[in-house]
Structure formats: structure tokens, C-alpha cells
Write a structure and sequence with these properties.
The chain has about 400 residues and is mainly alpha-helical. The protein has helices at about 1-35, 40-50, 65-85, 85-90, 95-100, 105-120, 125-135, 140-150, 155-180, 190-215, 230-245, 250-265, 275-305, 305-335, 345-355, 360-370, 375-395, 400-405. It is a multi-pass membrane protein.
Length: about 400
Amino acid sequence: MTENISAISSNELLLVMASISVLGIIGAYIGEKLKIPDVVIYLLFGVAFGPTFFNLVNINSFPVANELILTFGSAFILYEGGSEIKLKILNKVKITVLLLSSLGVFLTAAIIGVSSNAILNLPIQTSILLGAIVASTDPASLIPVFKQVKIQNTLKQTIISESAFNDAFGAILFTSVLASITLSQKSSLLETSMQLVFMILIGLLVGTGVALIGTALASTKIYGIFGKYEAIMSLAVVIFSYEISERLGGSGYMSVFIAGLVTGNKKLFNLWIEDDIYIEGVHFRETIATIARMSIFIVLGTHLDLNSLVKYGWKAFLIALILIFIARPIVVIICTSLDIKAKWSKNEKLFMMWVRETGVIPAALSGIVVSNKIPGYEIISSTVFMCIVITLLVQASTTGIVAKKLNVLED
């Protein structure tokens, strides 16, 4: 009897995964034709084909698969985001990037936290948790946009670097706040700060170590015995980076991001791979990242409680406006002003203020909150959904227009 139930469950899970894949492909096609971000279509498909309406995709029945999609998907996308960053360019604007991705995350979380406490009547810890979720920008949405809109290289690398780094910082802050809520522990500011530093350090060390080992084994060096399997090796690097870091008490998200950063700049470590193998690996990783994006946003859509969205919709909309027009400008003004050497122009600062799409990592973190039924999860899910839809529809769709008006396009 147990075997029959397991077989039925496995078959249903396969159908759910196949349905997500098909919906993802259709959503990508529609997004391309309508020239709007595909993740918006994925979200709407998740709502339409989830438990709320057609119930074709009900991932809640498979909690392990749900966690796998959210955890591995977000980890792999962070790895890809890290690999896009070039350290030579990053070195020129490192202070701005560091400030935006650390201080900027904490400022955004604080502003949204206070606003959520006042507008949504959430407890302060839960409000800060919501702030930590939406504080990150989205490399998975930014990178495709910047492939179409040719922004000045230094400005582009700064924004992409910030989005990748602040995903890691946002995930770390989220993990810390979530632990204090679920474990009912009240930590002092010093204890929380020390915990964050420890998580970051472990993530840095583990990510660097695992990436160097994996890249070396797939390189052209004499010890590069797995050169033909460089693409598959990237999966192992992501999984081992995340899991080892988490088990040592570090940040798995920081670890995979650093692993991607090391892998993407392997030449600085005197490590090389053959061109044809490199191209094969790029295609492989882009495919996995695309599947991860599809799955995360469709799953997030299935988690949405439509009644909660209707109930808290206008309040969630107000939080989204505060995020775009208050929190982000304050963060950019403060962080860029502290980096005197970068000499950012007024137009470059304005462009940074506008480009701050909320996307994959906030979606994944929101999914974790919903899966764990954290008090206030319906409000959090609705607000994150609103922030994602508005920032992607309004900001991502107008990046080219804003860049042209501000004269920050590449010559």
C-alpha cells in the first residue's frame, strides 16, 4: 500500500514538474512577443494554474520539491550572478558596490520595516523580515535587460555587482531575522552583527575554497582530470559551496555567490579551460539558470493567496511605492556620496535610483516564509508579489528609455 502511494506521489510530482516546464516555455514566448519581463508572466501563470484557479500546479503537496526549487534555484542564480562580475572593473568602484550592497540593504530593510510596521500593522521583527526580503535587487532580471540596453560599462558592472552582492547580504540578513523569529530568541545588536560577520566570513572561505578546487580539477592544468565535465562540475560547486557553508554555520548564499565570482574570474588565478568546453558550460549554466527562474516565479505565484492580495493590495502597493521612490533614492544618495573617488555624475546616480528590480531571491525567500507558515506570511507574500510585479513592469520595461534620457548609454 505504501509503495502504491509513493508511486502515485512520484507520478504526480513528475507531472507538476513537467507542467512548470511547459508553462515556463509558454511564458517566455509570451514575454518575448509582448516585450515585457518574462518573470511577470511566470508569476501570473503560477497564480492562474496554482491552487487558486485551475490547480494544475500544486507544489505545496510536495514540500521537499518545493524547498529544492527555492533553495537550489536561488543558489544557482546567485552563482551565475557572481560569475558575471569582472573583478578588474569591480576594483574601480568597489567602495560604492560595498556600500550599496551592505549599508544599502540594511537601510532599505529598516525603511521598509518601519513602513510595514505602520502601514501593514506587522510586528517589528516580521516587518524587518519583509524589509530584508525586498531589500535585494535582481541580477537575474538586470542581466537580460543590460544585454538589450547597452549601458556604460562601469555603470553597468556597478549595478550588476551590487545586485549580486546585495542578494547575498539580503539573504544573510533574512536568515538572521528568520532565526530570531522561529527560535524566539532576542539577540542584541552586537550579537546580530557578530553573527552576520561570522556567516559572511565562512561563506567567503568556503565559496573560495570549493570554487578553486572545482575550477582547478576542470582546468587545462596537469591535475585538471575532469576537464570534459566542467559544466557538470559547476553543479557540484554550487551544491557543495552551499551545503558546507550552511553546515559550518555560514551563509550558503554568500558562499555560492563567491564561488561564482571566483569561477567567473578564473584567469586571475591562472586557471584556464578549453574554449569549446567553456562555451558548452556557458550554455549549460544558462539553461539551468533559466529553468530555476521559471520554477521559482511559477512556484511563488502558486503560493499567492488571492484573498490576501485583495485584502492587503493597496497597502502592499504603497509599500512598493515607498521602496521605489523613498528607500532606493535615499540609499543611492547616501552610498554614492560616501565614495568620493568614484565621482558619480547626477545622471548616473538617477539611473541607479531607477534600476532596482525586485526578483528571484526575494521570490525564493518569500516562498520559504510561506512554506514555514511564519506568522503574517500571507501579508508578506502579497507585498513581495506586488513589489516584484511593479518594479519589473514599470522599471525593467523602461530601462532603455530612462538610460537614453539620462544619456548613460554606451557610445
